[in-house]
Amino acid sequence: FGDGSAVDASANPTHVYAANGLYSARLKVSDGRGKSDVETVLIAVGNTPPTPLIISPARESLFQNGKTVNLAGSASDAQDGDLPGNSLSWRVILHHGTKHIHDFATLAGAVSSFVPTVDHDADSWYDITLTATDSAGLSSSNTISVHPKTVALSLRTSPGGGAVTYGGSDHAAPFNTRAAVGFRTRISAVQ
């Protein structure tokens, strides 16, 4: 348990620490055939994780592809008080519809920024996660989502009913959609 107490070989051990502090508890698992594995976990007794706050952007804000999104955050901790900027880190994940995600950016500090890509349309959005880590190594995260500004887009052909291509997909005209502001793609029609 990391506090000098005796090893507990029971299947579901429990332990009560006598004093506040950081302890490295070690768990060893054996399969009975000579194979084993060991994991160590940090236990902070009498300590609570910090509380991160995303100041900017606001939850459910709208972004424009190709335009900077400014990030600002802070964190407080019951034991450490207000945490400095070097205790904060950002992770930005780009969701492309329900198809897949991209690790988009990893940033540090209370203030940072990123520029949304111009090659993803209205079905894409970003999750922005702020993680705060206190002096004991405990961390906590807060996540918000931001979505693209969109405009109505209508593609028509003359004569009507022609085939159009938008964003790499073929459609019959008239084709109506919501397009992300700043999205760059090719639009074409078959003659």
Tell me what the structure shows:
This protein has 191 residues and is mainly β. The protein contains no helices and 16 strands. The chain is elongated and about 85 Å long. The termini are far apart. The mean pLDDT is 92.
Jot down its keywords.
mainly beta, five-stranded mixed sheet, 0% helix
The ordered string of helix (H) and strand (E) elements is: EEEEEEEEEEEEEEEE
Distance between the termini: 75 Å
Q: State which percent range the strand residues make up.
A: over 45%
> What is the topology, as strand order, of the major beta sheet?
4-11-10-7-8
Shape category: elongated
For the biggest sheet, the summary is: 5 strands, mixed
By helix and strand content, what is the structural category? Answer: mainly beta
Poorly predicted segments: none
Mean pLDDT: 92
Radius of gyration: 25 Å
What is the helix content?
A: under 10%
Count the helices. How many?
Answer: 0
Number of strands: 16
In short:
The protein has 191 residues and is mainly β. It has strands at residues 21-30, 36-45, 51-56, 62-63, 69-77, 81-82, 88-96, 100-108, 111-114, 124-133, 139-148, 150-155, 163-166, 169-172, 175-180, 187-189.
Topology readout:
Elements: E1 21-30, E2 36-45, E3 51-56, E4 62-63, E5 69-77, E6 81-82, E7 88-96, E8 100-108, E9 111-114, E10 124-133, E11 139-148, E12 150-155, E13 163-166, E14 169-172, E15 175-180, E16 187-189
